[in-house]
Amino acid sequence: MKMNEAPAPKVELRNVRFDYGGAPILNGVTAVFPTHCITAVVGPSGQGKTTLLMTLNRLWQEERPTVGRLAGTVRIHLNGGLVDIYEDRYDLTWLRRRVAMVFQSPNPLPMSIYKNVAFPLKLAGEKRDHRMEERVQAALRQAFLWDEVKDRLHKDARELSGGQQQRLCIARALILKPEVLLLDEPTSSLDLRACEVIEALLAHQKESCTMVMVSHYLEQVRRIADRVMVMENGRLLPRDAA
Amino acid sequence: MTRSEFLTKYGFMAAAIISAAVPLAIFIFMALLGYPILTSGRLFGTLLGAWDPIHQSYGILPMIIGTFILAILAVAAAFPVCLGCAALVSDAAPGPVGRFLHGVVRMMTGIPTVVYGFVGIFLLVPLIREAFGGGSGFSLLTAALMLALLVSPTMILLFCDSFGRVTHTYRQAAAALGATTAQQFLFVVLPQARNGILAGVLLGLGRALGDTLIALMLAGNAVAFPDHVFDSARTLTAHIALIIAADFDSPEFRTLFLCGLTLYVLTTLLVLGVRLTMRLPGRRP
Amino acid sequence: MMRHAFKLFHVWVWGSTLLLLAATGTVIGFLLVRGWAGIGRELVFGETPVLAALMLQRPVFDGLFPAMVGTLALVLLSVGMALPVGLATGIYLAEYATGRLYSLLSLFFDILAGMPSIVVGLFGFSITIFLHHRFSGKIYPCLFISALSLAVLVLPYLIRTTQAALEAIPADLRLIGPSLGATRFQNIFHVLVPHSLKSILSGILLAIGRCAEDTAVIMLTGVVVSAGIPKSIWGNFEALPFYIYYISAQYADADELTRGYGAAIILLLLCAFLFGIAFWLQRRLSQRWFERV
């Protein structure tokens, strides 16, 4: 990705403030995450990086009672234009099927490999088996996992290694063909080898997906991120990559 | 929100409303059927009078007194034993022994009440009769002892919980100062767990007040103000069980619902007390 | 001085525990010693051939069989009634209710949980009176009313175990479903409930135990000493705990007393079995949890 072309914005935050039970976490974040780029968000822990990701798929609203409070606008390029995702007419389910998320530690559900990957598709109402099989296979290939698991699709997903589990979670996030993928330190619990595989597969997804990745490792950020932003005191400041 | 989402949410809500209506419905039924007494101007006479059907006096005071004495006796007898047992289980015993004993106490909560009553009749009643000479052996003391055994597991488990919640750092601090297990328990854990202990006692009282079978089977059921622990007595619960056979519109029968209401109010007050002492936050901590 | 206090403390805690264990051991031991000899085929089936009794071809007169069938019917009916409502209420409380509504509802269920069973029985009895006067003179205390009252009795247990199981699910697991586009209902049914199934199941077992052992409720709502196998839910029925109670007061001869002991042992074993499995499930659950963390 060439930096001087200035690709169109995919996600746009304007003066986003978030406080959790009165404690400010985000103090006016204004930023743009361009289409088909991997934007890395770095910074010391406890600065609200995960919270930032959760404002993009509104996952913070799942906590009940909702203690968080958000102000400002978050717009994402969906349905052919930038839309304010906090508008009432947008359904949470609709949003999260387009803005997927991978968590810090691998979290396969206690079911088979196949069922894990097929899960979001099943929730979305897909009933045709052959269609499901095609999509599962495609997603597993995208996650560089197909060759390793094609003979044991119906084994418990928790038998896989840590790195495989995380790739399974990525396949699960990709199966609905999301336009934005949020990654919350996806390799922090993995060894170097597993880490490299995941970096390689993420780099492959850039054509179809815009990624926002929280990371601790500057090495990793240098390797795959197109743009780097630093989170400090609840604000997001741009830094040039490399 | 999709249609099925909407339907399920309100389906769950309907179930919650039905469940919440149950305690209200119980209260309303008791109040409606006890209505003639509540409005006849004889309420206080009934609550505070003596039971003397021949002279048209249907006071339930003896039963209220009997209930209180029995429950307090049982909890008083159980308290020191439960506290000691809980101290051993959660503090003084080595890990595996503590866990094993905790399991045993939990299993004890499963012993049927009627079994306690049954064994009480054939084991404890003759023992009391012989040991203390004279009388039938059916007495407040007999029932209180069995009742103490019945409420013990509840109290121990609650005590253990509250001991377990005492912050570990306090204990470590005390241990670092050279405090023995006994000193740690007595000077650190016990004062910190004060609220939990009170809650356990209240809960034990609630179980003791509400128990029917042990009182009915072992306390002798005489309607009189008991003078000492070897006297026979009747509780509100046993009274309800004994009178239920009478015909529908008799005055004796009406007093049942007053007994029910009294029990309802007492246990509700205890539940409120427990919530207050534990300062239960309305939501997850 | 301090040393004495130290010794005294240990005497107290060990003494209390041993006293309690001895008392409980005495209760159980007494029952087993007196009643074990009576345990056998005749205790349950009397003189009736086992197969004929099981097929309900011939009535059992001198055995516990009708009381056991009565207790079984009672348990199935009442847990069947309480289960859907209890589960749904527990789910509502844990997953939907917030703020004031949450506190108010949990207060109500605490009150219900503290309700003495005789009051619940009296409630069932008053419902019978109400139905008898209002709707049909043919309605009397019966199996249905007993089961309904027992359902009321165990409802708070089911609500609480469901609620506690769901609320114990850690946040990271709770968020997986929604992050993949699951609606709240989908998340509950595909992730949260399956995950807490074991603890919910152990709650159901405890509720069954409660239904099987409670005597006060059924005493007021239709249990009798001799009714045979229950023929309809509108009729009287026998039950183990009531039989034990009745025998303790009214036994006519040594045979009946032996049957009383036998019934008490059977009920005790049944409850121990149910509680044992329930606790085993909970233990396994927490162990698995620790392994994960």
CATH class term of chain C: Mainly Alpha
Biggest sheet: strand arrangement of chain B:
1-2
Largest interface: B-C, 88 and 93 residues
Quick one: CATH superfamily of chain B?
Answer: MetI-like
Largest sheet of chain B: 2 strands, antiparallel
CATH topology of chain B: MetI-like fold
Instruction: Kindly report how far apart the N and C termini of chain C lie.
Output: 45 Å
Biggest sheet architecture of chain C: none
What is the CATH domain class of chain B?
Mainly Alpha
Rg result of chain C: 23 Å
Beta-strand residue percentage of chain C: under 5%
Tell me the radius of gyration of chain B: 23 Å
Structural class of chain B: mainly alpha
Overall spatial form of chain C: globular
Q: How many domain modules of chain C?
A: 1
Give me the strand/helix succession of chain C: HHHHHHHHHHHHH
Task: Characterise the protein shown here.
The complex is a heterotrimer of chains A (242), B (285) and C (293). Helix content of chain A is 32%, strand content 29%. Chain A has helices at residues 49-56, 92-98, 113-123, 129-142, 146-149, 162-174, 192-205, 218-224, and strands spanning 9-20, 23-34, 38-42, 68-78, 81-84, 99-102, 180-184, 210-214, 227-232, 235-239. In chain A, helix 7 links the parallel strand 7 (180-184) and strand 8. With 242 residues, chain A is α/β, with parallel strands linked by helices. Chain A is globular, with a radius of gyration of 18 Å. The two termini of chain A are 13 Å apart. By secondary structure, chain B is mostly helical. Chain B has a single domain (59-278), classed as MetI-like fold (Orthogonal Bundle). The longest helix of chain B is centred in the N-terminal third of the chain and has 37 residues, at 3-39. Residues 280-285 of chain B have low confidence and may be disordered. Chain C is mainly alpha-helical and 293 residues long. Chain C has one domain: MetI-like (MetI-like fold), CATH 1.10.3720. The radius of gyration of chain C is 23 Å and the shape is globular. The interface between B and C is large, with 88 and 93 residues.
